[in-house]
């Protein structure tokens, strides 16, 4: 067996040494110093103090699930994007390398949809049903 300490064993030893050396009074002094610096305007001290007393803030993840769309609806939306932004076709073509995107027939989709020319955002395109 090796006489070398594992990282975990070394950390455990160092933590035990630190705990043996630090007194409750030392901890009280450190906490009071942290409070004083936070009151003096130190954002780092205030953050540390709040994180240690209240816990780190949790981040809420909001998942906005949309209804599933049929392939026809997806193709119609893609056609609207390509009509409104023709430069996207070359970007998509280059991104797919050997697999070229077929040109979407404009006449097939233009009768089905009306693209709002003022809108820059794909979410705001209007479709005639």
Summarize the structure in words.
By secondary structure, this protein is mostly helical. It folds into two domains: 48 residues, no CATH class; 57 residues, no CATH class. The chain is built from six helices and two strands; from the N terminus they run ααααααββ. Strands 1-2 form a two-stranded antiparallel sheet. The radius of gyration is 31 Å and the shape is elongated. It starts with 6 loop residues before the first helix and ends with a strand.
Read across the widest sheet, the strand sequence of neighbours is: 1-2
Strand segment tally: 2
Task: Tell me about the largest β-sheet.
Answer: 2 strands, antiparallel
| Unreliable residue runs | 107-122, 124-129
Mean pLDDT over the full residue set = 77
Order of helices and strands: HHHHHHEE
Helix content: 55-70%
Straight-line N-to-C gap: 75 Å
Number of helices: 6
TL;DR?
This protein has two domains: 7-54, no CATH class; 71-127, no CATH class.
Secondary-structure topology with pairs:
Layout: H1 7-21, H2 24-39, H3 43-54, H4 71-84, H5 87-95, H6 106-110, E1 113-114, E2 126-127
Antiparallel strand pairs: 1-2
Top keywords for this entry?
disordered C terminus; 3% strand; 6 helices; mainly alpha
